Amino acid sequence: MENPQDIFSSNGGCLSDIVIEKYLVESKESVSHVQLACSMQDCAFPLDGTELCIWNTKDPSHQLLILRGHHQPITAMAFGNKVNPLLICSASLDYVIMWNLDECREKVLQALDLQFDGWTPLSSCGTG
After folding, report:
1. For residue 76, what is the enclosing H or E element?
2. Among 27, 29, 37, 54, which residue's Cα sits nearest to residue 125?
3. 107 falls within a domain
4. How far is Cα 126 from Cα 128, in angstroms, rounded to an integer?
């Protein structure tokens, strides 16, 4: 059986038994328990209760994707079992929303282009 230190030392984020913080996201709301859903390349968690934050774990330098559409706190989320299209479902008391992450990322890129042209969109992706 492998020594746990050997396993951790081969990973870029961990050395022996020390975990290195790669990214920090602050929330406006105090939370004692935050749900986390992960796929092969992304992790998702509620941000400030009603927003869904998607973090690309393969390339942490990518901007966080913030999905807005819920009006009540997000209580559950799960990734789909396919990579193409990459889907995530989020649920709250008001809505259950199925998000296509490829489409959402494309809308954000288009919105950034529009912002440079002097127009600012109201939402990054989807509505409830």
Report:
1. strand 74-79
2. 54
3. yes
4. 7
Query: Which residues, including other chains, have CB under 8 Å from residue 82's CB and lie 6 or more apart?
Result: none
Number of CB atoms found within 10 A of residue 92's CB? 21
Distance from C-alpha of 16 to C-alpha of 72, rounded to nearest angstrom: 41
Rounded CA gap, 75 and 83, in Å?
A: 24
Q: Mind listing the pLDDT tens digit for each residue in 20-68?
A: 656 666 766 666 677 889 998 899 999 888 999 998 888 766 778 999 9
Residue 18, C-beta contacts closer than 8 angstroms, at least 6 positions apart: none
Q: Which 3 state secondary structure label does DSSP give 102? A: helix
Tokens of 71: 């009006």
Range of the domain at 74: 37-111
Q: Is residue 52 part of a domain?
A: yes
Counting the structural domains of the chain, the total is: 1
| 4-21 per-position pLDDT tens digit | 444 444 445 545 566 565
